[in-house]
Amino acid sequence: xxxxxxxxxxxSGADAGRxxxxxxxxxxxxxxxxxxxxxxxxxxxxxxxREGWAAKVDGAEISADEINREWxxxxxxxxxxxxxxxxDLQRTLYQQQLxxxxxxxxxxxxxxxxxxxxxxxxxxxxxxxxxxxxxxxxKFDLQTARARLAAAGVTEQGYVNDLxxxxxxxxxxxxxxxxxxxxxxxxxxIMGLLDEExxxxxxxxxPQDFAxxxxxxPEAIEAxxxxxxxxxxxxxxxxxxxxxxxxxxxxxxxxxxDEQLHARYEQDKASYQTPExxxxxxxxxxxxxxxxxxxxxxxxxxIYKQLKGGAD
Length: 312
Known about the structure:
Blueprint: H1 2-10, H2 14-18, H3 21-38, E1 44-50, E2 53-57, E3 60-63, H4 64-81, H5 88-114, H6 121-129, E4 135-136, E5 139-140, H7 142-151, H8 156-179, H9 184-194, H10 218-227, H11 247-252, H12 258-267, H13 293-308
């Protein structure tokens, strides 16, 4: 972001940056080492349009307004480079690159602070006043600085914050760069790649342009089918449809009043009744002659007394 602001203040930094592209190779190499050490992909969440932030890095928010402003500022340059129109795919890719850049920048500054790097007010002031666009006749002029920032659509506080983060990042990358080294062969290869250009030619072949123009014999179709039977086979399967009816579930959804119970009882009263029945049993004492009547009577009375007493 600070580079974009600087380009606006100075007009264009493309030509000046071309001669120093090898520096960016070292910087990006250092960035790779930082991200490998810290593992940033597990610590931020992307979420446009929610609660005013576009992304979070270790709990710190990147304002959606900030990303939108940066996108508005870059659209003119991107449209010019694309010939005046951006496709939906290009627009999506550029917006994602913009967000990725903001996430990387915040992740690096957080990591730098975690390692103990800091920027003093004196360092910040010196860097601010050394900006060529803020100078008049070789001396820093505050009014000129504010006017240039306003013309670029940047607030003074926003520029100072970006400047502080840039200094913090430079401290970290400087330390990483000191510990880095390249072999002569690697240096030669990098320098050889800086201005390398490659020419690519390609042809787009659309299937619909050739469909139906080449006759295919039935024998060829049959041979292809027999050679690739698995491509035309599906695993055996069955489709079932069933309904499960649970008496408990049905009963839980039915409410019956006392009046309904009484009416149903009266309606089916006969099904709840059984005919009256009686069970009888007797003990027969045979009498062969009238002379035995007295004896039989005495025996019957004795049995009766036993039964009343609970005998079986």
